Amino acid sequence: MTTKRPIRTVLIANRGEIAVRIIRTCREMGIRTVAVYSDADRMSPHVLMADAAYRLGPPPARESYLRMDVLLAVARESGTDAVHPGYGFLSENAAFAAAVQDAGLIWIGPPASAIRAMGDKTAARALMTKAGVPTVPGTDGPVGSREEAEAFCRTAGFPVLIKAAAGGGGKGMRVVQTGAELAGSLEQAQSEARSAFGDARVYIERYLEQPRHIEFQILADAHGAVIHLGERECSIQRRHQKVVEESPSVVLDEALRHTMGQTAVRAAQACGYVSAGTIEFLVDRDRRFYFLEMNTRLQVEHPITELRTGSDLVREQIRIASGEPLGITQDDVRFSGHAIECRICAEDPANGFLPSTGRITRLRAPAGPGVREDRGVNEGGEVSVYYDPMIAKLIVWAKDRRAAIERMRRALAEYEVEGVTTNIPACNFVLAHPSFETGTYDTGFFQRWYRPEEQPGPEQGEAEAMALLAVWLERNGDLASGSGEISGSGVVVSPASPAGREGWKAGRIRALRGGAA
Predict the structure, then answer these.
(1) Model pTM?
(2) Residue 493, pLDDT score
(3) What is the pLDDT of residue 68?
(4) What residues pair up with 55 in beta bridges, in sequence order?
(5) In a 10 Å sphere around its CB, with 0-12 CB exposed, 13-18 middle and 19+ buried, how is residue 499 labelled?
(6) Mean of pLDDT values over 333-354
(7) Is 233 an active-site residue?
(8) How many C-alpha atoms does 472 have within 13 Å on its Cβ side?
């Protein structure tokens, strides 16, 4: 029998937008929050919003956010009841989950045994196979030698995918097209896996060409109830990092959705899961699906599930951790409309998406009906070299997919970020591409379609903006009154005009396109 334990104070072992996200739900639940920060984050929003904040150490994560001993010391000193790990850092570290519980605290996450079971990818594959969950054909365990890899590839054929046994996120992963590439790719993958996870073990799967990446959100309580909250389509990826996500997926009909949802529930039950988690699948061109991995934490893209189901996944995590049963059954889950999320990152698309660090000198977020922004840095804040360059998540909801796409385009056009370069142009590219509009994309979208050198440069963008501004001025009287003039492709704007006063920019002016046509 599970004993209920009230939670009054939560230590958030994380930073950025996910820490802010957790603080907001805790505040609504009347729960006190404790933030932690490195020297690089001392003025960050999560530090300023929490009820208390404690310094961990210098900026490098290994000297701050990854210091289990310091985090537990802060928990003791601050009177914490429970620890929420967010995502990244120690969120899928079974040793930290166990240490929190050994310290007498509540871990707002799955049992350490479940994290451990699903963290080793080869062990997870074996567990899923035993539970009747389909997996991509691959090696039974880690590959011990080049000869063993060659033997598998002779049977399976090329292409194949080499993957790290101890991790994910694209690290230690290589696609191998021919036998000549195998030895070198195997060595590279092992080296990268050792560097990223401290574990050089890799395994090999048959590579699915042009698959869709579709994942199911599940909730499981400590009383044996497990439900799913539908799927998220996460196929728009760049080097295995998700960029744009949407829900629902256009390739699932109700029958396949039901089958995959029930399979996700079975996968969670197989590892004794409790809390919020995600079962990731690959779906091939014949709509056959295969288990990819389980993320034993909250996902970055969880808001699109929240908007479609009206749920608060952080609240559910906290309720489950305190011993409460799920408040709903599978039959109670209702889906509404369509949601899309774009990850707004300080990256330079024209320069290989390299992180763009520095101070954000201007930041204006979109708003209006159906728009949500989860942000971890404010105007004046720094994007540093030490952490993920994501500035915010931009999420929209609308009654159907077409309306959601149009709303996201409008929201992206309103977004203003200065001081660092962002990936907003790449997000715009995705939203405007026929493959996305028709829902016929797959995980090879960026590799197949995106050419940074073919995107409009600053000069071209400015010319377009000036042309549109001229239209706006003409329609609103500045030219007629003689307070503005067109010269060549440009326009001289009256300082007294709305455009002159507010310094309208290309992105906002493009929003006039529809009205000017």
Answers:
(1) 0.86
(2) 40
(3) 98
(4) 37
(5) buried
(6) 96
(7) no
(8) 25
